[in-house]
């Protein structure tokens, strides 16, 4: 390069650098240099590929093809060497590879996991890296995590979880060209150290004993042997299914859901007074007092609202399990607030989506959201050291003896702040 040409190049580099233009993108001063380095590297790979053994097979060079590469430095075209038998597999820029830098793919997956649409991601990448990426390419990039999602769904679980919450989120999913409503059931557990963990997520069009039997069998096959307390909404067929797989599990139905469902059938003029009377039931000091208040509730409201009273009586055993515990544990298990709180965080990510193209598209996004949420679960539940001792008194040897002697929870394992339910 002549001194004049070098001076012009240096001037162009300085001008583009000062103006903030991408030096490696289209029109960038250093783009020809990057293109030249990549093409020389590919030529060297082709020379190594066409060794004596390949040439005895009749293989040789067969011209060049063209490819547009997208990277965090911008987009640029390169010439790619080709061989007659199409057996050349370059390592630097693989066949059908259009994204040069894995850093860009990681950024795309990260943005997708935060709930950004393909359109917004494409605009962001264009603005930051001067690179155009189609929705098809973006979908292909996010599909890279599918094996990771499947591996996570089938990962081994701990043998015992102290408390497990189950609840559903509802989404629209395209099936054979039409929109269907599907439920995504998430299972949130607390292990013996008091840390929260999403045990699994399952998509179903309808719930029932058969569906829950499949879910619980899957958990069992992944190593789960025992659940102390399962907290659920009034899930159809769940109690029958869980007792067939984990017969010692104590089922506590969500009081909050029961109250909400009850108020749907109470006239608005009666709701305030009815709720005042109902509070005496679920906020009673013990189960005996609660049952006396339930009888009072029936006597006062039974004739006017027999369906509501019958629902409380029919589900009473599973609604009243929390009375066996002290107030701190009652607050943890008498409602599904823990999993509902998790769902609120997931919805912040999924709210921008109308209908998902398929089940896996839904699972991909919820999985990425879950991994981001779990990063914040760095400490055991508040006062877990006291909670686990009370659970040991109740469940005995179903909790490892060493845990009873030295319960964890006093010192956070992965953080400094306790994580409230």
TrEMBL record:
InterPro entries: Transposase_mutator. Residues 49-83 are annotated as: Disordered. It comes from the Bacteria. PROSITE patterns: TRANSPOSASE_MUTATOR (PS01007). This is Mutator family transposase. Belongs to the transposase mutator family. Keywords: DNA recombination, DNA-binding, Transposable element, Transposition. One of its GO terms (biological process) is DNA transposition. Transmembrane segments: none annotated. The keyword Transferase does not apply. Required for the transposition of the insertion element. Coiled coil: none annotated. Pfam families: Transposase_mut. One of its GO terms (molecular function) is transposase activity. Residues 58-70 have a biased composition (Basic residues). PANTHER family: MUTATOR FAMILY TRANSPOSASE (PTHR33217:SF8), TRANSPOSASE FOR INSERTION SEQUENCE ELEMENT IS1081 (PTHR33217).
């Amino acid at each position: 390069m002549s001194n004049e040409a070098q001076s012009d190049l240096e001037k162009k580099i300085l001008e583009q650098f000062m103006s903030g233009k991408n030096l490696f993108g289209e029109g960038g001063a250093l783009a020809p240099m990057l293109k030249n380095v990549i093409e020389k590297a590919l030529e060297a790979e082709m020379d190594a590929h066409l060794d004596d053994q390949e040439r005895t097979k009749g293989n040789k060079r067969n011209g060049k093809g063209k490819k547009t590469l997208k990277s965090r430095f911008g987009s640029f075209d390169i010439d790619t060497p080709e061989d007659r038998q199409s057996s050349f597999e370059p390592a630097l820029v693989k066949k059908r590879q259009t994204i040069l830098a894995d850093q860009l793919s990681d950024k795309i997956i990260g943005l997708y996991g935060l709930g950004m649409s393909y359109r917004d991601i494409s605009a962001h990448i264009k603005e930051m890296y001067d690179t155009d990426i189609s929705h098809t390419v973006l979908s292909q990039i996010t599909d890279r995590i599918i094996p990771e999602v499947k591996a996570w769904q089938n990962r081994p679980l701990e043998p015992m979880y102290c408390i497990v919450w189950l609840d559903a989120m509802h989404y629209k999913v395209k099936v054979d060209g039409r929109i269907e409503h599907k439920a995504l059931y998430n299972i949130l557990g607390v292990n013996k150290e008091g840390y929260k963990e999403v045990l699994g997520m399952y998509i179903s069009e309808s719930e029932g004993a058969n569906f829950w039997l499949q879910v619980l069998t899957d958990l069992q096959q992944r190593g789960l042997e025992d659940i102390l307390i399962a907290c659920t909404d009034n899930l159809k067929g769940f109690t029958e299914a869980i007792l067939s797989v984990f017969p010692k599990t104590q089922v506590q139905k969500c009081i909050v859901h029961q109250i909400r469902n009850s108020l749907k059938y109470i006239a608005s003029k009666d709701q305030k007074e009815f709720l005042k009377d109902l509070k005496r039931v679920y906020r009673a000091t013990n189960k005996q007092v609660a049952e006396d208040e339930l009888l009072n509730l029936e006597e006062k409201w039974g004739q006017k609202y027999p369906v509501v009273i019958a629902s409380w009586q029919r589900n009473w055993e599973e609604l009243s399990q929390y009375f066996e515990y002290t107030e701190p544990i009652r607050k943890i298990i008498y409602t599904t607030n823990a999993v509902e709180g998790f769902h609120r965080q997931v919805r912040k990510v999924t709210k921008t989506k109308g209908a998902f193209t398929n089940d896996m598209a839904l699972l991909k996004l919820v999985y990425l959201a879950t991994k981001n949420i779990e990063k914040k679960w760095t400490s055991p539940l508040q006062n877990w050291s006291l909670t686990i001792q009370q659970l040991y008194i109740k469940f005995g040897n179903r909790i490892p003896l060493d845990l009873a002697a030295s319960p964890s929870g006093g010192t956070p394992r992965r953080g400094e702040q306790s994580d409230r339910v």
